[in-house]
User: Which sequence fits this backbone?
């Protein structure tokens, strides 16, 4: 890959993260979420109630105890529920509360607004948006394969 393209991708990603951090911090108000907490909430929003062990698989940098502690913090803030699985008493199932769902929906709306504003600011044409969609779907498929996710981008 061309070095100037790599640098441009890094610079764009960095700026999007800066914007995201500022907006999401405002959205949450009194509860300040870490990147790991946000990831867990997003996984629950995407997949529904999930076991702690499956959530641990999503963050290879974190130990099971770190994920458990993170989930406990989310539970204390009333963003997730924790229940013992009826099939296996050793398994804890984590789900979103209504408050957790509202926070994640707010984050998603903010992302959509940022992307809309971005496309408007750079005056993308329909053809360019079609190319972007194709590239994004290929990237999503790549990451899904790497992460072992069965869904495939198709829209």
Assistant:
């Amino acid at each position: 890959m061309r070095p100037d393209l790599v640098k441009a991708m890094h610079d764009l990603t960095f700026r999007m993260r800066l914007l995201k951090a500022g907006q999401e911090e405002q959205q949450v108000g009194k509860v300040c979420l870490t990147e790991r907490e946000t990831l867990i909430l997003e996984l629950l929003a995407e997949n529904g109630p999930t076991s702690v062990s499956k959530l641990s698989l999503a963050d290879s940098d974190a130990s099971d105890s770190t994920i458990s502690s993170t989930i406990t913090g989310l539970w204390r803030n009333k963003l997730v529920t924790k229940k013992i699985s009826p099939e296996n008493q050793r398994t804890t199932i984590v789900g979103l509360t209504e408050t957790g769902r509202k926070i994640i929906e707010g984050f998603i709306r903010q992302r959509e607004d940022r992307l809309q504003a971005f496309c408007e600011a750079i005056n993308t044409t329909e053809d360019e948006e079609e190319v972007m969609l194709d590239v994004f779907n290929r990237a999503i498929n790549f990451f899904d394969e790497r992460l072992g996710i069965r869904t495939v981008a198709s829209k």
Observations:
- Strands lie at 50-51, 80-84, 92-96.
